[in-house]
Design goal:
Helices cover 27% and strands 29% of the residues. The protein is of the alpha+beta class and 734 residues long.
């Protein structure tokens, strides 16, 4: 022990001066035994030096005493002192008495709090809503009318309509649901959603404005000579290379023409004239400065002519009419001008403001006059642009090339696009690695009204999407992701809704002898996105009340092995347009039993899909009348009676008969026997007597009328299936 501590008492044990008898008392010597006794614990004062100090030495020691309180009813309970901490101490003591009034008050308080929270989150409910022709999903409808989706499902179930949460409803079904909740659903005004022409010039650009070439869109009916006219102007032969002799994609050409001895640049857009390409014509009208309507002098106004004029008038662009094929026999330009009056197009020589030029695309007659009028019209519009602005425009067409990837045809409408720029085009983005003109020549930059081909995007953009240059890749990616999310939601709606919206006709309860709703799974691949869009738009016009189309995949690019695997897993068809599968894909398709069909002309594809849909329809048994007879006598016993009859019209043959007694049908079934005298025969001609027996029928009487008929299996058409499953909307309260 160190000298400094010698003589000091040890802190961990009691003083040695303490008498031993204090800790271990001893009995008298005569009562001592070997029994063990528990020793008494040392006092707190002895153990206090060994205990750890409190965290706050100045804080008072916690009181552990329980305080007794008495409530109003006289019952006592124990409650810990206010200075007692939280935790396990709560379990000690007896809880106070909780009365029924206290429970009711607490419950009312909680309900009031929940109602207040819900009222804060709920928006004001409207009484009138709009719904477009595209309909809406059940989830969107429930959110719009602020009702639970399960309640809507229950409402339609009570009407005999069964559907799932993710299906898309047509506008009539939406109106039916709204009427059940005393709400009004009206048709959406389509003029509000019409994409307006974007003005790329502002007041800030006045100091930097420069003239730009006009964008001229050529529109009209199929086979009226649109491409042939442009071929003559461009000195090319595009029409000779087209399948079926029809244009099936937008062609963008930058051409130099001579007007009044000057070379001027004009951008021509050649749009398809087939009825399937309505979206392309509308897209061409939105981006053009001048619309040229081609009308054949020997054919006159046709449906697509009317549609093209309507697109141009809706876009509010100047219209020039070119009456083509004036050199053909039977050409009557004056009749064409008269028919154009129905479309509010009055020739200038008749006091109107619509220039009309007589041309011949094959011989070149009137082409110079047409170019002159186009030039004058462009000068009147004073077309200008600011080349220093950010490059913007519209995607004219896009396709997937197996060697270089996505290729997009862009129309520059503002600014100047350069090689190396980062752009976003719809849901695609990327850096321009290759910039070409319509002839395939490499460019370093392109200004307004110039169509260019761009390589470098990560995806194939949709035709008609807007594109713009971005400051950096992050900005372009963010803009593309917004569009991608919309496309993803649209595709999910197509997949869950079966490829077409759910209509009252397709969901109505049908009889047991009619087939249930079926689906035809399709995988569509084309050489360009615009063609795929046109194919889907045309297929949407087919009746789909009994057979609906479901698009598992649609896009541009070659048919791949994954497309074949998807078709094999879903039992679908693979449709290719303007492309052919390679040998590996064909072998894989044959091994899996997948049908791959390729086309060059769009209406051949539409016809085959319609035939495939009709092939899935169940055949119907149709009654074909054969002849009639009248019962003259009844022969035989009660168990085997036969009717002696004479054929009054047509003939009787071993088939089916209907026995009528007055206006009542007493039997309808199969004929059991047919005899002439004693011989069994297959048929009996008109005016001849015979004996006739029926299966499970012996209640013959004189004067009964017999109608003989055969059952013929007949394939139905889609229009007939549509009529058989149609629903009278008035009976559903719509």
């Amino acid at each position: 022990r160190p000298p400094a501590l010698q003589g000091a008492p040890l802190p961990n044990r009691p003083q040695t001066s303490a008498p031993p008898s204090a800790a271990f008392p001893q009995r008298p010597s005569d009562q001592q035994d070997m029994t063990l006794h528990r020793p008494q614990p040392p006092s707190l004062r002895v153990l206090e030096p060994l205990m750890p100090p409190p965290l706050n030495p100045d804080a008072p020691r916690r009181a552990r005493d329980l305080v007794q309180e008495v409530d109003e009813d006289g019952d006592t309970y124990k409650e810990e002192d206010e200075t007692k901490g939280k935790g396990k101490g709560k379990k000690k003591g007896k809880r106070g008495k909780v009365t029924a009034e206290m429970k009711r008050a607490a419950r009312k308080a909680r309900e009031a709090e929940r109602e207040e929270k819900a009222a804060g989150q709920q928006r004001e409910r409207e009484e009138i809503f709009e719904v477009g022709d595209e309909g809406m999903s059940l989830i969107q409808l429930a959110d719009m009318i602020q009702e639970d989706p399960s309640d809507i499902v229950r409402t339609l179930f009570m009407k005999g309509i069964m559907l799932s949460m993710n299906q898309v409803l047509d506008k009539n079904t939406c109106k039916l649901v709204a009427a059940e909740y005393d709400l009004l659903m009206v048709d959406k005004d389509t003029t509000k959603d019409t994409k307006s022409r974007k003005d790329y010039v502002s007041e800030e650009d006045i100091e930097h404005l420069q003239p730009r070439p006009p964008v001229v869109t050529v529109m009209g009916h199929v086979d009226h000579g649109k491409t042939s006219l442009l071929d003559y102007i461009r000195k090319s032969r595009v029409a000779a290379r087209e399948a079926g002799g029809i244009t099936q994609g937008i062609g963008a050409y930058n051409t130099t023409v001579e007007v009044d001895g000057e070379q001027r640049m004009v951008c021509f857009l050649d749009t398809p004239g087939h009825e399937a390409f309505s979206a392309m014509r509308a897209r061409g009208a939105q981006v053009t400065d001048i619309a040229v309507i081609i009308v054949a002098a020997d054919d006159g106004i046709r449906p697509q002519t009317r549609e093209a004029v309507a697109h141009a008038q809706a876009a509010e662009v100047p219209i020039i009419v070119a009456i083509n094929k004036i050199d053909k026999p039977g050409a009557d330009p004056e009749r064409v001008k008269t028919e154009l009056l129905e479309l509010n197009l009055v020739p200038e020589e008749w006091g109107g403001n619509t220039p009309m030029v007589l041309v011949s695309a094959k011989k070149g007659e009137g082409i110079a006059d047409l170019l002159q009028i186009i030039s004058w019209t462009a000068e009147e519009k004073a077309l200008v642009c600011n080349p220093l602005n950010k490059a913007q425009g519209t995607v004219i067409e896009a396709h997937l090339d197996r060697k270089v990837g996505p290729v997009a045809t862009l129309l520059v409408q503002a600014g100047t696009v350069k090689h190396g720029d980062i752009i976003s085009a719809g849901g695609a983005y990327g850096k321009i690695r290759v910039l070409k003109d319509d002839l395939g020549n490499n460019l370093e930059s392109a200004g307004a009204s110039v169509p260019v081909q761009v390589i470098g995007l990560n995806l194939t953009p949709m035709a008609g999407e807007e594109w713009s240059a971005a400051a950096n890749e992050s900005e372009a990616r963010d803009a593309a992701e917004v569009v991608q999310e919309k496309v993803r939601m649209q595709r999910m709606a197509e997949m869950t809704g079966g490829g077409s919206m759910v209509t009252l006709s397709s969901l109505a309860t049908v009889d047991e002898d009619t087939e249930a709703m079926q689906k035809l799974n399709l995988i569509i691949k084309g050489d360009s996105m615009g063609v795929v869009e046109a194919i889907k738009a045309s297929l949407a016009t087919l009746p789909q009340q009994s057979i609906s189309l479901r698009y598992l995949l649609s896009g541009s690019g070659d048919i791949t092995l994954s497309d074949i695997d998807l078709a094999a897993a879903s039992g679908g068809l693979v449709l290719g347009f303007n492309l052919e599968p390679n040998d590996l894909v064909e072998t894989h398709a044959k091994r899996l039993g997948v049908r791959v069909m390729t086309y060059k002309v769009i209406y051949d594809l539409i016809d085959d899909v319609k035939a495939a849909m009709e092939g899935k329809l169940r055949t119907v048994e149709e009654k074909v009348p054969v002849g009639t007879a009248e019962v003259k006598a009844v022969f035989g016993s009660s168990k085997s009676k036969v009717a002696g009859c004479v054929v009054t019209q047509g003939k009787l043959q071993r088939a089916f008969i209907t026995v009528k007694r007055g206006k009542q049908v007493v039997f309808d079934g199969k004929m059991a026997s047919l005899r002439r005298i004693k011989d069994d025969v297959e048929e009996v001609s008109e005016g001849v007597e015979c004996g006739l027996g029926a299966e499970n029928f012996t209640e013959w009487k004189e004067g009964d009328k017999i109608e003989c008929y055969t059952m013929v299996s007949k394939s139905r058409r889609l229009e007939e299936a549509q009529a058989s499953t149609a629903v009278d909307l008035s009976t559903l309260g719509v």
